[in-house]
Design brief:
The longest helix is centred in the N-terminal third of the chain and has 20 residues, at 2-21. The chain has 2 helices and 9 strands, in the order αββββββαβββ. The strands form 2 sheets. It has a 5-stranded mixed beta sheet with strand order 4-1-7-8-9. Mean pLDDT is 83; it is low at 13-21. It has helices spanning 2-21, 96-102, and strands at 29-36, 42-48, 52-58, 63-69, 78-84, 87-94, 110-117, 120-124, 136-139. The relative contact order is 0.18. β2 (42-48) and β3 form a beta hairpin. By secondary structure, the chain is α+β, with helices and mostly antiparallel strands.
């Protein structure tokens, strides 16, 4: 019983420390960025199964970003709904499939960048100019 109590106490303390320091315990910390390369404002509604981050207006060359700790079971999902004038689309911004294009094993946390352009949505582990080969096309705007 003593060993179980000590283990419970240790896990509780680690959980408190990580929540105060915004560190992740046993999983990676992810930083996601949605960057608009559209000359008009776009509206993004971001949500997961656990968190609704709400609506955000993103101006030209502006961004919306957030951080989260990956789930221990690896089933973290963030979804985005996007509006640009009369156009709309929805897509997964983070899931098991997208973990690969964004994973770099950085000690400071993982970074995933989404670039929203008139031609669609692109993802990368790097925040680089669009002219290079770092961006992977994922989806067109719906008409």
């Amino acid at each position: 019983m003593g060993a179980m109590h000590n283990l419970f106490t240790l896990l509780t303390l680690l959980s408190l420390i990580t929540s105060v320091t915004h560190a992740c315990f046993l999983t990676a910390k992810w930083n996601l960025y949605v960057i608009s390369n559209i000359e008009d404002d776009i509206v993004a509604h971001i949500k997961s199964g656990d968190d609704d981050l709400g609506n955000h207006t993103i101006p030209f060359n502006g961004n919306y970003n957030w951080s989260f700790c990956d789930r221990i079971d690896g089933r973290t999902l963030f979804y985005g709904y996007f509006w640009w004038g009369s156009k709309f689309t929805s897509l997964a911004l983070f899931d098991n499939e997208l973990r690969g294009p964004c994973a770099l094993n950085k000690e400071s946390g993982q970074h995933c960048y989404w670039l929203v352009r008139p031609g669609g949505f692109y993802v990368s582990a790097y925040n680089r100019t669009f002219a290079n080969n770092y961006w992977t096309f994922k989806k067109h705007w719906d008409e």
